[in-house]
Amino acid sequence: MKKVAIFASGSGTNAENIARYFSENQQIEVSLLVSNHLGAGVHGRMSRLGIPSITFSKQAFVEGRPVLEKLKEHAVDWIVLAGFMNLIPADILNAYPGRIVNIHPALLPKYGGKGMYGMHVHEAVVAAGEKESGITVHYVNERYDEGQVIFQASCSVLPTDTPEDVAVKVHALEYEHYPRVIASLLTGEYADSFSRLCVSVFERATGDYHVTDNVDASVRNPFEAGTIESQLYLKNWIDAVQWHLEDLIRDPQIKPENVVALKRRIDRSNQERTDLVEQIDGYFLETYKETSAGPDATINTESPAWAVDRLSILVLKIHHMRQEVHRPDSSDAHRAACQWKLSVLLEQKQDLSAALDQLLEDIGKGRKYMKVYRQMKMYNDPSLNPVLYGHKK
User: Fold this and answer.
1) 3-state SS class at 316
2) Which terminus of the chain has fewer Cβ atoms in its 10 Å neighbourhood, N or C?
3) Pairing assessment for the beta strands 2-7 and 78-81 based on DSSP bridges
4) Is 104 noted as a catalytic residue in this protein?
5) In this predicted model, what pLDDT tens digit does every residue of 139-170 receive, in sequence order?
């Protein structure tokens, strides 16, 4: 059992979300709240969950030793910062090397450093005219917001958004991702989980696409060409463009000639998507080419890359459903219904991710084997589509 101490200074909504996330976890327990503010709302939240809390003065934090003694008394393995305003002193950093993490409400290295917290960050983002913001989970070092980045997720910032609007979007990202990233780190799964790599890249691509939200925008792939990350990023970008092409073709006011043009573009997009799925399966074939299937090995109903395909589309669904949850011109009933749907989608993402990782583990250990059946798009082949070859008669 890994024991976690949460360091918090404010109202504690993130701290409570983390504690509830692990409340029935058999591997991870939030065992202590550490605060520098006796009147902070986080104390009440954690008390209601049965989690003890202690408060130290600024001087005690600077000294470090008094805090370390309490952490040792509670057998704390990891420290998680959730809205904690003080720098972590060297004694605590040295006692927990690589085991202290923080979340920042922006895409570091932008809008980090001393004084950049809470609404100050969102105000700066809006004032600068940024088109996106998000969250950064990072390791903690001796300087504000300069530790190694572990995970980022982004959200769009619209020209009409206020700092409060951005805060709502960023807070939703914090709720969704921070506990999951903590769980991954503490169980040692983060670096080894292919599904987590997929989700991280897909969320970045989805966020990047929605900065312009334009089906004709040029893709600027941030990953090195030929890498699996580059393929995953392009995969999600293609899915995002096709998602919005499907929106456009359903416009009741669309002109008939535009329907034809969009339908052909969607067909091309489907072909690009299928081609890329095969390329991703090629990555898996290369990865496991030295693995021998066991005598009782079975084949899966789909190849790994088609599971990756479904995960990419699921990330897009979650993005758009989250927009509906916070859509200001909708009714309370609509937002409540979308909140329920969002919870189902998030559960589905967790299940699909676990299934993908299990499939890859089974292939890697020879319990399953994979095949790739190259596509045979009959309606695209002039020699197989009777409409096309009929014109030659």
Assistant:
1) helix
2) C
3) parallel
4) yes
5) 998 888 988 888 888 888 999 999 999 999 99
